[in-house]
Automatic annotation (TrEMBL):
Recorded name of the encoding gene: fliE
Organism in which the protein naturally occurs: Sphingobium chungbukense
InterPro entries, A to Z: FliE
GO cellular component term, pick one: bacterial-type flagellum basal body
Domain of life: Bacteria
Cross-referenced Pfam families: FliE (PF02049)
Protein name: Flagellar hook-basal body complex protein FliE
């Protein structure tokens, strides 16, 4: 009887993991009303910009704001990964696939941010070493 229980427990674990992977890769459902409202706003914005001031005067975010928002996004992802890992360690969740997906995502985002920082520092050093 214990062998059957182990097989059934393994089967249930596989089914849960497959469901978690399926949910993680499933496309998000879109509310038709929200999509129509977004399309209307987009159409209004496009028609307003077509008759307004030239594109050069559009208020664009500064590079500093872009970097801050990117770092905040990476930090938020890493915090979510920490919460998921701690929940798994405490036994609150048994979905290891979701935890590993979160960990991989946060690792990739952090590594990309690190590489961008390295490229920016290299460009800065090259500019500082230029002779005028």
């Amino acid at each position: 009887m214990t062998d059957i229980d182990r097989v059934l427990a393994a089967r249930n674990a596989i089914i849960q993991r497959n469901a978690a992977i399926r949910n993680a890769t499933a496309p998000a459902t879109i509310d038709p009303k929200a999509a129509e409202a977004f399309a209307a706003k987009l159409q209004g914005a496009l028609s307003a910009t077509a008759t307004s001031v030239p594109a050069l005067t559009v208020n664009q975010p500064s590079p500093t704001d872009s970097v801050r928002s990117a770092i905040a996004s990476v930090n938020e992802t890493m915090e979510q990964e920490d919460v998921a890992t701690e929940a798994y360690e405490r036994g609150e969740t048994t979905d290891i696939a979701a935890v590993m997906l979160m960990k991989s995502r946060s690792d990739i985002e952090f590594e990309a941010t690190l590489q961008i920082r390295n490229k920016l520092l290299s460009a800065y050093k090259d500019i500082m070493n230029m002779q005028i």
